[in-house]
Amino acid sequence: MRALLQRVTEASVHVDGALVGRTGPGLLILVCAMPEDDADTARALALKISKLRLFKDEAGKMNLSVLQVGGSALVVSQFTLAADTSRGNRPGFSGAAKPDRAEALYLQFAQDLRDLGVATQTGQFGADMAVSLTNDGPVTVWLDTAD
């Protein structure tokens, strides 16, 4: 799985003008399932993210995890993280998992975060979403479970 994490003071996602998910201070997580991913991959990524020290401690150093600061997460599916730009000018997305499998892994990943104690909301899989955020830092981190 691939994930792009952004430390945020707030983030929200709307579909057709209606709010479907939001987070206060915490993480906006854009996530993409790849064909070789399974439930174990989703669980491992959730565990890694729950422990990743991206938040400032009292000395201003990034030493605290989202769990330690009581932060929350907004998880948004984004197949474009699988973009192949190696040829031409139009990205290819055949490297992403097929939609039915991708949706199941996306939902599994969000549930795994919840199970680890991170308050988590989601966007709407497959929808045309409007995502808003206030990036904190900015802090943006790319994770790929294949690495």
Automatic annotation (TrEMBL):
InterPro entries: Daa-tRNA_deacyls_DTD (IPR003732), DTD-like_sf (IPR023509). The keyword Magnesium does not apply. The keyword tRNA-binding applies. Transmembrane segments: none annotated. It catalyses: a D-aminoacyl-tRNA + H2O = a tRNA + a D-alpha-amino acid + H(+); glycyl-tRNA(Ala) + H2O = tRNA(Ala) + glycine + H(+). It is found in: Cytoplasm. SUPFAM superfamilies: DTD-like. It comes from the Bacteria. Its EC number is 3.1.1.96, 3.1.1.-. A motif (Gly-cisPro motif, important for rejection of L-amino acids) lies at residues 137-138. It is an enzyme of class 3 (hydrolase). Keywords: Cytoplasm, Hydrolase, RNA-binding, tRNA-binding. One of its GO terms (molecular function) is D-aminoacyl-tRNA deacylase activity. PANTHER family: D-AMINOACYL-TRNA DEACYLASE 1, D-TYROSYL-TRNA TYR DEACYLASE. An aminoacyl-tRNA editing enzyme that deacylates mischarged D-aminoacyl-tRNAs. Also deacylates mischarged glycyl-tRNA(Ala), protecting cells against glycine mischarging by AlaRS. Acts via tRNA-based rather than protein-based catalysis; rejects L-amino acids rather than detecting D-amino acids in the active site. By recycling D-aminoacyl-tRNA to D-amino acids and free tRNA molecules, this enzyme counteracts the toxicity associated with the formation of D-aminoacyl-tRNA entities in vivo and helps enforce protein L-homochirality. Belongs to the DTD family. A Gly-cisPro motif from one monomer fits into the active site of the other monomer to allow specific chiral rejection of L-amino acids. Homodimer. This is D-aminoacyl-tRNA deacylase. It comes from Pseudosulfitobacter koreensis. The lineage of its organism: Bacteria, Pseudomonadati, Pseudomonadota, Alphaproteobacteria, Rhodobacterales.
